[in-house]
Amino acid sequence: MFPQVPSWIGQHHKLSKLTLSADILKQDGVDLLAQLPNLYHLEMNIRKPLKERILVRGGSTAFPVLRYLQLSCFGPWLRFEAGSMPNLRALKLNQHGRGLERYGPSMLEGMAHLLRLKQVHVVIANGFGNGAARPGVTAADAEAAYRKALSTHPGHQSIEINVTLFCLVLTPPAFLYDSDDGQ
Q1: Mind spelling out the 3-state secondary structure of the chain?
Q2: Pfam families this protein is in (predicted)?
Q3: pTM (2 d.p.)
Q4: Which of 182, 124, 114 is nearest to 154 (CA)?
Q5: 5-45: per-residue pLDDT in tens?
Q6: Which end of the chain has fewer CB atoms within 10 angstroms, the N or the C?
């Protein structure tokens, strides 16, 4: 577990597959990872909620060969620019139901720019904490939010969207993600 994306990772241009866990994700960390020319498979586990929207920049040098992205965080608050992740085929998002409630349908902006996207798989941990289940979003709510985010994508009808919803009842030390309010 790193505090954030380590700066030295940018020196490893031969990396093709990376799994990274960090407390926080900041813009400079995403920009650093985007410059890895051979990175085709990226899995990131981010423990704390994103404080600001992360911009996934476009351009020929930003994630040029990335085909698979898995992001595990409280809520994926991202904006994709034109030309970003030009080869991305599969996007897997592991998030908390309250992250979807907080960021809503606008949590992922610019998904229309992910031109080769074929599959979105969303896993939502819903309503856990303090030893009791809490109400949260439904699978239908989550699917509707992601369909809305993809509605302007030129191939939106052919993109497969899978939503898996589960409820964990855990004691506070076992939380998978922190939230701003400590719950």
Answers
A1: CECCCCHHHHHCCCCCEEEEEECCCCHHHHHHHHCCCCCCEEEEEECCCCCCCEEECCCCCCCCCCCEEEEECCCCCEEECCCCCCCCCEEEEEEEHHHHHHHHHHHEECHHHCCCCCEEEEEEECCCCCCCCCCCCCHHHHHHHHHHHHCCCCCHHHCEEEEEEECCCCCHHHCCCCCCCCC
A2: LRR_14
A3: 0.83
A4: 114
A5: 999 999 999 999 999 999 999 999 999 999 999 999 999 99
A6: N
Q: What's 142's domain CATH number?
A: 3.80.10
> What span, in angstroms and rounded, lies between the C-alpha atoms of 37 and 16?
8
- Dihedral sign for Cα atoms in the order 72, 4, 149, 105: positive
The answer as to whether 179 is a domain residue is no
Contact partners, residue 182, CB within 8 Å, separation at least 6: none
